[in-house]
Amino acid sequence: DCPGKERIGEKMRNLTLLRNKLYMGERRRTEPVVESTTAAGDHGTLRRSQSDRTEYSQKLQEKMAPQAVSSPPATSLPEDEEEVSRRRMIARRAKIIAELMQTEKDYISDLDVCIKEVIQPLRNKQIARFDVDGLFSNIELVHQLSAKLLSLLEEATTDVEPPMQIIGEVFLQIKGPLEDTYKIYCYHHDDAHTMLESYEKDEELKQHLRDCVQSLK
């Protein structure tokens, strides 16, 4: 019996050794496969990255090529950027001058109506308790000066090319009279406002003012 048991034990040891050898052999076979797979995957990723960059470069060149072909040379442009900018500046300046002159015309028109429909009728009534000149200060002188300013502006712009319209000279020329006239008007402004408030509390004087306002409508 003992020799049989020894043979069985020896067989068991041999099976164990064989199993270990098979395991190690299998591990040796699989490890290179995993490494090569990983390496192949990395190289595949690298190849795809290089391919993407090449494709992107080609597309970029395709996009740039038509633009370069279709864009005309700078020398063939009808006018350069400086000329375009200059023309825009001239057009903007002409628009500002036109708006300035229109504003002055509207202001003069309003002063005309005020003098003809309010100041003159109140003066003609000769109301003892109504100080027309105190209420309206030097508004007629303001009207005259505004008309002079408009005349100078029209003279500076009529039949004159926009680049040659020297508007600044107009204001320098009339600067002194403008300051003198509006100093007086502004100096009496608060007194005139107080006077108007007192007249509106007097029903008779208020009615005269109401009549003038009605005539404006």
TrEMBL record:
* Comp. bias intervals (Basic and acidic residues): 49-62
Listed InterPro entries: DBL_dom_sf (IPR035899), DH_dom (IPR000219), Dynamin-Rho_GEF (IPR051492)
Which terms does the record give in the GO molecular function aspect? guanyl-nucleotide exchange factor activity
Disordered: annotated span: 26-85
Write down any Gene Ontology CC term: cytoplasm
Q: Which residues belong to any copy of the DH domain?
A: 92-217
Query: What is the protein named?
Result: ARH38 factor
